[in-house]
Amino acid sequence: MLAQKIQKFMSLVFTFGLVMLMTQQVSAQAVPKASPTVTPQQGGTLVMVVQPEPPTLASFLSTAGPVGQVATKVYEGLLEYDFKLTPQPGLAKSWKVSPDGKMITFKLQENVTFHDGKPFTSADVKFTVLDVLKKSHPRGINTFRALQAIDTPDQYTAVFKMSEPAPYMLMALSGYESPMLPKHIFEAGDVTKHPNADLPIGTGPFKFVEWQKGQFMRFDKNPSYWKKGRPYLDRIVARFIADGSTRAAVLETQEAHIAGFNAVLPVDVRRLEKLNHIGMTTRGYEMQSPIVELDFNTRTKPFDDVKVRQAVAYAIDRKFVVDNIWFGFGRPATGPINSNFKANGLYTADVKNYNVTNGIEMANKLLDEAGYKRGADGVRFEITHDITPYGEEWRRFGEYVAQQLGKIGIKVTLRQEDVPAWLRRVYTNYDYQLTNNWIQTLADPVIGVHRLYHSGSIRQGTVFVNGTRWSTPETDNLMNQAAVEMNSKNRAKIYHDLQKRIVDASPIVFVHELDFVTVHNKKVQNFLVSPLGLYSTFDQAWLQK
Amino acid sequence: MVVSRLQYIRRRLLLAVPIIFFIIVLNFLLIQIAPGDAADVLAGEAGSATPEYMDQLRRKFGLDQPIYVQLLTYVSNVATFDLGFSFRHNKPVSELILSRLGPTLLLMVPVLLISVSMGILLGAIAARYLNRWQDKTISTVVVLTYATPVFWAGLMLIVLFSVKLGWFPTSGMEKIAAFHTGIARIIDIAHHMVLPVITLTLFYIALYTRLMRASVIEQNTMDYVTTARSKGLGEKRVLWGHILRNACLPVLTMAGIQAGALLGGAVVVETVFSWPGLGLLAYESLFARDLNLLLGIFFISACLVVLVNLAVDLLYASLDPRIELK
Amino acid sequence: MRDIFRRFARNIPAVFGLVILVLVMGAAFFAPAIYPQGPFEMVGKPFLEPLTDYLLGTDQLGRDLGVGLLYGARVTLQIGLISTLIAIFLGLTIGGTAGYFGGWIDTLLMRITEIFQTIPFFLFAILLVAILKPTLGSVIFAIAVVSWPPMARLVRSEFLSIRNREFVQACIVMGMGHWQIIFKHVLPNTLSPIIVTGSLMVATAILIESGLSFLGLTDPNVMSWGFIIGSGRSVLRTAWWVCAMPGIAILLTVMAINLVGEGLNDALNPRLKNI
User: Fold this and answer.
1) Contact yes or no for B272 and A463 at CB 8 A
2) pTM of the model
3) Percent of chain C beyond pLDDT 90?
4) What is the nearest CA distance from B12 to chain C, expressed in angstroms?
C-alpha cells in the first residue's frame, strides 16, 4: 500500500544551513504561541483515519509512518519546529550550543509529569537518548553517533557532549523522531521487548487508553498536561480501515474527521474536495519531499548503457502520469533534488530535460544508437518491470510504463510481488532490471539524497539506499564536499553540479514530485501548526461544534 | 462393524490428528517458499534498517534457526496448544485469534442460520410448485444472486445504502468514536452488521435454495413417497413431514462444510466492509510473513472443520436411522 | 443421444444460457482479430463515460473498456476452463483410484482428500498465489488445487457404486484387465455427473479468480475481468462503469454456465416428476 511505503523515511534529521546552526544560540519562550484567530472550543472526539494500521506504538523502535501519526499524541520531544524549520521549545524550554559546537545544554520545562504522575526529569532524557535511541532506534543509531555522554547536573538540565559538531542533531529532537520515554518504566527489562511498547506512557497531551487491533486506538485527554488549558479535544480515536473507498466514505459521512498521507486515495480526494464540509491541504509534509522514480539495475544489461537509460527517461510523459494516475497531485520532477529546495537555492532546473514533446522520437534514436535495433516484430529487447507493492496507483504506473516502452520497442513483462519479496529482490539480491519506486528526499540532501547515489551507500541487505549501484568518483566527491560546506552559495553550486551529472547519467528516471494530501472535515481547526503536520501532538487542535 | 457413539467420536478425533499435523507442515513449508521474512517486512516499514538490526530481529523471532528446527519447535508447541507469539502484533497468537473470533462469529453465524433456513424454505417452495411461476421466479433470482461476485455486491450495497441513502454505516463493526456500552452497543453493532450479513447471505441462500430444490425433487422419486401417497396420506402435511426431513440432509452437509470454512471464508467481505474478522487477519499475516499467526489461524480452522464434520455426521446418524456409525 | 439434445432444447433457461456462452466464447475467440492492438493500449481520454466515444467507456489509463471485456473473456474463460480441467483430472485420478481399488488405497487417498478439504479453500488459494507470485499459471494452479476435492469425492462414490454392480463383477471374473474395465465400463457410466459438476466448477473457478483479482492477486500482464474490476475498485464512485461492466460480464457468464449445467443435468437424468 502507498501509505505504508510513504512512511519509510520519516526523518526530521535535516540540515537547513549548517552555518546557521553551528553557532546558534537560542533562547526561547516557555510555550510556543498558538495562533488561532477564533477562540478554540473545548471538547469533542477527533476521529483520524490512519492507513495502514501501525504495527506498534513504540516509536522509539519503529520509524514506520503510521506509528508517527499516533505515538506523537502520547510522547513529546525536546523540541518542536515552525514552518521556517527553526527549532522551537518543546520539553526543553531553552538550549545553548557551545561555540565549538560540541556541547548543547538543554534547560527542561519544570513540573512536567508523565501520564502515571511521575515527574519528567533530565534522567529521563539521558536514559531515552543514550540507552534507547542511540542503541535501538533505526535512525537514532546514526543520528546520535557523535553523542558520547549526557550530564545531568540537576533534574532540569541535560548537557549533551559530542565528539564532534553535529548540527543536524538539533533537527532530530521532535516527539516523532526522538520521543522522551519514562526511565522508571523502561529501564526494567529489555526495551526491545517491553510490555509497555504498546502501552505507552509519555508526557503528551493525550493518554493512551486502548488499542483494538484491526479497529481503532483510543487516546483520552491528559488532564495534567503541562501546557495549561490544553489540549482542547477530549479524545482522539485513530481508526483503521482496510478498503480505500470505505476510507473516503467515512469522511464523506462525517464518521471520521481527518485522514492524511493519502489514506484517502487521490481519486477520492478530487471527489471529496467538492463537498462543502471537506477541506484539503498538501501542507504539513514539507519534511518529506517524496519523488516517484524508475530505478534501473545499472550493473546488468541492458540498463548498464546510459543511452538506454536516457531513452527510457525520454519515453515517459510525466504530465500524463501526474494527471491520470495521481489525479494531479504532484508536478513533473527534473532531478534528484525536490523543487521544494528552490527556497534555499539548492535546487536547479538547469539540467538535461527529458520531459519533451518529442520524447518517443528521441528515445527511439538513442536506442538505435545504442545498437538495439528493432527485430522483425518491432521489438528491440525484453525486460521485466517490477512494481512496487504499495497500492493500485503503482500498478497503473507499471502498466503505463509497459505501454510507453512498447512504443519504443521494449517488450515489458510486469511482475508483482508482496513487500518482503520485493524488498529482498531489489535490495538484497539485486535481481531486477527496472522497478518503480518512490523515495523521500527529506529536508536536506545530505539525509535523503546522498544515500541514493553515494558509493558508500551501496550496502547489500539494507533497504532504501543505493539500490541501482550506480556511482562515480566525481559525484562521490561532490557529495562529500557538500556535506561539510558551510557557505550556502558554494553549497548550492556544488549541488547544482551534482544534479546536472546525475540527471545526465540517469541511473534513475525522475518522474514526478509527489504531493501528500490531508483530507479533513472543516470543523477540525488548528491541526496544522508545524511542518510535521499529522506528526505533531494535536495539543492545539479543536473541533468546531 | 457398528460401534458405539463414544467410540466413534474417539476414533474420528484420533484420525484427525495426523490430518491437522499434515496441514500445519504443508502450510509451514509452503510459506518457506515465499521470499522474504518478517524481518524484511519490518525493515521495509521502518525504512532504515541496517543488516545488523535485521539480524537482531531475526534472532528475536527465531528465524535464524534452520528450517527443520523451526518446524519441530512449532509443532511441539502446537501439540501443547501453545500457538506461539505474533511478533508483528506483539501478542500471543491465541489472544489475537480469540479477539477476532467474536466478530467473525457475529458475521458468519447469522449468515449461516438465515441462509440455511431461508434456503430450505425457498427450495421447498420452488420444488413444491415445480415449473410454475413460484419456481421460475425463485430459480431466476437465485441464479442471479449466485452468479454475482460477492465483493461486487458488497460494493454496490455500500454505494446505495450507505452513501446515497445513508441508512447504514459504510464500514466497521461499531461506531468508533461513540464507545457505546450495553444495549446501545448491541444496537450499534447490529446496525453495522446488516450490510455485510446481507452481502454474504445473498450468495449462500442461492446455494442452499438450489440444493434443497434438487434434493426435494430427488426425494419425490423415492419409493417411500410413492408408498405414502398411495396410502392416501394427506398430501401437504404428512408428506412434507417425510420429504423435508430427508431432503434437508444434503443441505445440512453443505452447511457443515460452510461452517467449517467459516473462519477464512469471508476475507473478501471483511475487506470491503473492514470487518475485523479472522479472514482479514490471516490475509494480513501472510503479507507480513507473520508465520505463527497465519499457521495458528489455519490450525484453528482445521480443528473447527474436523469438529463440525463430526457433528454433522452424528446429526445425520440420529436423523436417518439407516445410517450406521462405522 | 438425440433424446438428450431434445430434452435440453426444450429447457428455455438452459438454451438462453447456451446462447450467452456462445457469445462469450465468440468474443474470446475473435477478440484478437477485431482488436489486434490488445486491451492495454491507451486509446482515449481516461474516464470517458459509456456511450460517448467508446461504447463502454474508458478506464483510468484511457483504455477501451469494451476491448478489455472482449479480451477478458479470453483470459477468464481460459482460467476457468484450464483450472477446471486440471481439477477434474486430479479428481478423476485420485477419486477413481480410491473408489475402484478400495482398501488401504481408498483410505490413504481419502485422507489426503480430507486434508485438502479441511484447509479453508479461499485462504489457501490466496496463500498459493501470493507465494508463487501472481501469474496466470499460479492463479490457474491455485484454483485447481482448491477445487479438486469435491470432484474426487464425487468420482469415488460413483466408481464405488458402479464397481459393485454385477456387470463389472462379471468382467472381473472374465479376467478383463483393470484399465479396460475402467475405461470401457466404469468411466462412461460416471460421465454425466462429472460433466455436470465440472461445468459448475468452471463457474466457481471464475468467481474465485475474480475474488483473487479483487484482492490484487492477479497477473499484471493479462487482463481478466477480475483484473478490470480490481483496477476500477478505487475509482468506483467516479467511474462506476469500470467495475460495473466486468461485474455484469462475470454475472452473465456464471449464470449462463449454471443454466447450461442444470440443463445438462436435467437432460442427462430425466427423473423429473411433478409433485
Assistant:
1) no
2) 0.82
3) 31
4) 12
